[in-house]
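Troubleshooting: if your tokenizer reports a length mismatch, compare your output against this known-good record of 250 residues.
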Amino acid sequence: MGAARRLMGALALVAVVALGLSACATRATGAQASVTPTPPVTAPNATLAIPTVTILTGSPWIPLASTSNADLIAAARDTLPQNFQGGDSFDITASSPAGTPALVRALRNSEFPHLNDVAVVPFLVGSGSVDVALQLNTTDTAFQSAGMFAGSERSQGVIWAYTKAQAISALAAQRHVALAAGFQPILVYWTVNAEDIETGAITWNAGLMGPSDPFWLLRGANGVYYILANNGRIYALSEMPLHTLPPSGY
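Known-good structure output:
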């Protein structure tokens, strides 16, 4: 799939954000990209308007047995007829093999303080994937269809750019901090208004981070939360724009 097709999918998921989900973006390339040190991230002093978010109500909540890979794949397959009604054309069928589902928690910020978590199930199509997104309720016991989007050109059916082990190693190498005892890295996504990026109201040069491009959240032994962004660099949440906070419960 070409970059233009993936970009259109990204913009479509941005529209879903305005309806209560989140932004999606073109996946970062290079699953084995090098992990390098990073300078601090700075954001300009700007007053950002908090948008009005309308919750998507057209799709009913459907019970979800669990967040196991098997149940997420089954739920994603159940949404295929609904997604195809959108008129977009994807080379996917009911028998297309599924990749590895990702349960992606939502980072909170001053623009989007309340976002739903998302499950993303990639289906393998040729040399890339088609990603089916499921918006989850607060207890992970029901879902709504959040659409189908052109994925990356990775053929292995894994949507995250780095492994959990690479994230832990990057934290130690770049920030000289060990992972907090008992904390397991989790996949997260981060949403901003696209207009704020386009107009320069906020600055973020570390890659796009929608549900189909998740990244790892880590808590250091020093009590600080960090992410391994899709550019291979470690950032503290305090270095991100919009007063970014970890997901509720973490």
